[in-house]
Amino acid sequence: MTLLKKHLALLGFLMAAATAAPAFAQQVIRLSTTTSTENSGLLQYLLPKFEAKTNSKVNVISVGTGKALELAKNGDVDVTLVHARASEDKFVAEGHGVNRHDVMYNDFIIVGPENDPAGIKGSKDVLGAMKKIVDSKSKFISRGDNSGTDQMEKGYWKQVGSQPQGPAYVSAGLGMGEVLNMAAELRAYTLTDRATYIAYRAKTGLQIAVEGDPKMFNPYGIIAVNPQKHKEANYKGAMQLVEWITSPEGQGLIGSFKVEGQQVFFPSYKGEK
């Protein structure tokens, strides 16, 4: 082959590669989600499998549910995975999101120091236990960040009719893992999702005080950002993630994820619209 032919052959190869590259370019999907899905290790377990299957890169922003929905509302992400059903329904009703689906559930628990100053250990009555925390003037650490956990906690205090006052109540404005560490340091109670608690249990030494009340049910939903409001949103990628995480494969992986040998999320998708 002559030198000219070699150059032409090389040029043809490079042109073909350049033309083909966009078809195989990795897409980016922006996901806002709660600290519980990040702190528990669930996303690190799930997303690499989705990314490999779809040639995608999922950029995760892990914050409280309120902030996660705000990011979606502003078009700063393509899809959101959160756990505050009333806020999710409002988000969709206002036209910010579409195609909401149930993904999974776990539960909230109240955890606290081993000496249990409020005398609530073993209770299955979350409102009664929180009333005892108030009456005993025991210290309580609140997320204070408008997360799903924070919204649930505030709803409980409203039903109780009172909440800890003064130094007995600390509004941290932090994620769940940091709040658990703070509760351990201050020998205080806090409301947490079970998954994050288990991930931090050995580090904090906090004990489960209240569990098993139906009021502590904690469902998660996934919502695509409305492409009619945000033209730049990667709606196709968002729906790929929505469809995958609610598929038998995604649901099966959620069910098989464990922390310290314990299942912490339970798949809940049943094909609703």
UniProtKB/TrEMBL annotation:
<dbReference type="Pfam" id="PF12849">
    <property type="entry name" value="PBP_like_2"/>
</dbReference>
<protein>
    <submittedName>
        <fullName>Extracellular solute-binding protein</fullName>
    </submittedName>
</protein>
<keyword id="KW-0732">Signal</keyword>
<feature type="signal peptide">
    <location>
        <begin position="1"/>
        <end position="25"/>
    </location>
</feature>
<feature type="domain" description="PBP">
    <location>
        <begin position="30"/>
        <end position="249"/>
    </location>
</feature>
<dbReference type="InterPro" id="IPR052738">
    <property type="entry name" value="ABC-Tungstate_binding"/>
</dbReference>
<dbReference type="InterPro" id="IPR024370">
    <property type="entry name" value="PBP_domain"/>
</dbReference>
